User: Which sequence fits this backbone?
């Protein structure tokens, strides 16, 4: 499986000090201390290559796309459609017709919910998700349930934060119209056995959407190898800009779906009697798109492939192991989510201290982590905690960052325990 | 921004040992408050004697700031009438949000919340109990939100 490829083949080590120089924000201080950024799962920082690609486009080539014969419009169109092909190659899609630019993972899932699923379901039909999902992979389906009378089914997880696979597979039946699962849990880091789930769903003719927001920065994603029907991800989780994301969809399915939003660019002809829609992928891209966002996303993909996705995954796995060990040595720390296969996300609690107080003390030490429910309230409920603290690691983090995290947590204990 | 200014000894003490913690039964009014950002939840129970708060208790889970603020509030409002509580609320609100606010002696131990405004993300933690109290006083049994 792509995200854990590093476990099989040894990858060349990353030159992390050089990488850190690519990220200007990492050299700033926070509260008088050098910043330790451990919140990449919420939003990763951007390398100069991305910042410059966006600036270069905005400075020299901006105009609207698909609309003009003038030079700038042609350059903008070439940049935007070039970015689309970059995405296609990055996830190994068959065709750029399968790459829809959206605002992010949330919009991608809503698009599938409203355009693919809603017309196909009614009372008695079922949508299957897991108990690990981010709200973005829960609420769009609940809306469809309210709109159509279909039912949301939830596959349970165990105390380690792994999906109970046997029970999930039992929930796929003749009433299931779609399986929608995270590739990696944002709250716990669990890597789900998506390939196995996709195979089982397909055996019963059920399509599968994968929420890849947390998987895409941690390893190589190959949508053909996965054989998923939809794959959704965001640019800003993979060192690209905010406000740009991708919905990959199998071409035959996208062809069968009605447009989601109406407007400019998604039409071929418009009259008051009849409007004909544009071809894929533009059928799903009404209005002027986020052109510079697409350009920045393509630059992020170049950057990641330049570093090597296998090398990034290996580096992050080392940091995860190091941080897990360091935190286990701190009295009162409990790691929430202990699945065998995890991405570099470490959720934890500290006995007697609310995660928000942890977050504030860590911030005073210059250490940025996420605290709260991580848009996964059902996961918090399952573990019986209102919130957790979450450290997440990216290509630019170091063993020194782990040491600073551990030292700052000792400081939290000094204040509260 | 000094951590010690936020987590003053009074705050840490009231977080460790919240006063008036638990349910009040029977009670005359109550409300539930929820801060979805941090998952803080608290319930306030009031026993009223006409216009006056005769007794108050709270329960719930939250961060140190929200727990201590609720604990301090229960101590401060016991025996006060609605008008006095309204006045106190306005002073606390100013203390939490306005840079020029000064904690006068009438605030007593509540003055310990004076460091919170330097930590904008935590103001809601400190004010949740007060908004919940207002809801309880209005006897609306609904859940209030600081979001």
Assistant:
């Amino acid at each position: 499986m792509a995200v854990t490829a590093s476990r099989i083949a040894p990858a060349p080590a990353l030159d992390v000090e050089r990488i850190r120089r690519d990220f200007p924000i990492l050299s700033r201080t926070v509260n008088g201390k050098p910043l330790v950024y451990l919140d990449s799962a919420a939003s990763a920082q951007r390398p100069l290559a991305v910042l410059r690609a966006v600036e270069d486009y905005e400075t020299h080539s901006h105009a609207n796309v698909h609309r003009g014969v003038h030079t700038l419009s042609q350059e903008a169109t070439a940049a935007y459609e070039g970015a689309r092909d970059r995405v296609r190659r990055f996830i190994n899609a068959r065709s750029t017709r399968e790459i829809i630019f959206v605002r992010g993972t949330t919009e991608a899932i809503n698009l599938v919910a409203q355009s693919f699923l809603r017309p196909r379901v009614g009372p008695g039909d079922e949508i299957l998700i897991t108990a690990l999902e981010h709200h973005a992979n829960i609420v769009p389906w609940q809306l469809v349930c309210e709109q159509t009378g279909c039912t949301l089914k939830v596959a349970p997880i165990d105390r380690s934060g792994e999906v109970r696979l046997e029970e999930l597979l039992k929930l796929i039946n003749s009433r299931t119209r779609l399986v929608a699962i995270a590739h990696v849990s944002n709250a716990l880091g669990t890597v789900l056995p998506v390939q196995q789930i996709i195979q089982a769903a397909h055996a019963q003719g059920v399509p599968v959407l994968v929420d890849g927001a947390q998987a895409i920065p941690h390893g190589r994603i190959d949508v053909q190898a996965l054989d998923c029907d939809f794959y959704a991800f965001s640019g800003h989780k993979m060192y690209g800009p905010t406000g740009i994301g991708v919905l990959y969809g199998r071409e035959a399915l996208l062809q069968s779906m009605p447009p989601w939003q109406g407007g400019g660019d998604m039409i071929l002809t418009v009259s008051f009697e009849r409007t004909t829609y544009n071809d894929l992928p533009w059928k799903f891209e009404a209005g002027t798109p986020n052109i510079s966002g697409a350009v920045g996303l393509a630059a992020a993909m170049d950057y990641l492939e330049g570093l090597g996705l296998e090398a990034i995954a290996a580096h992050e796995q080392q940091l995860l192991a190091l941080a897990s060990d360091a935190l286990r040595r701190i009295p009162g720390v409990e790691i929430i989510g202990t699945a065998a296969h995890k991405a570099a996300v470490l959720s934890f609690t500290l006995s007697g201290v609310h995660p928000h107080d942890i977050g504030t003390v860590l911030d005073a030490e210059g250490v940025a982590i996420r605290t709260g429910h991580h848009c996964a309230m059902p996961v918090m409920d399952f573990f019986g905690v209102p919130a957790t603290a979450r450290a997440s690691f990216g290509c630019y983090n170091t063993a020194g960052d782990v040491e600073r995290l551990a030292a700052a947590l000792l400081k939290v204990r000094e204040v509260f325990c | 921004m000094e951590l010690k200014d936020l987590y003053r000894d009074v705050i840490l003490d009231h977080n460790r040992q919240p006063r008036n913690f638990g349910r009040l039964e029977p009670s005359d009014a109550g409300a539930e408050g929820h801060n979805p950002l941090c998952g803080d939840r608290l319930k306030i129970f009031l026993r009223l004697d006409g216009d006056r708060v005769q007794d108050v208790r709270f329960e719930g889970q939250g961060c140190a700031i929200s727990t201590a603020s609720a604990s301090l509030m229960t101590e401060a409002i016991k025996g006060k009438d609605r008008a006095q509580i309204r006045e106190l609320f306005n002073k606390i609100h100013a203390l939490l949000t306005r840079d020029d606010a000064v904690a006068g002696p009438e605030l007593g131990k509540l003055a310990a919340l004076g460091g919170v405004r330097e930590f904008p993300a935590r103001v809601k933690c400190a004010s949740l109990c007060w908004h919940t109290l207002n809801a309880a006083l209005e006897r609306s049994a609904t859940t209030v939100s600081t979001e």
About this structure: Chain A has two domains: 2-46+308-416, 51-305. The two ends of chain A are 42 Å apart (CA to CA). The longest strand of chain A covers residues 176-182. The interface with chain B takes residues 31, 353-357, 360-361, 364, 371-373, 377, 380, 386-387, 415-416 of chain A (CB under 8 Å).
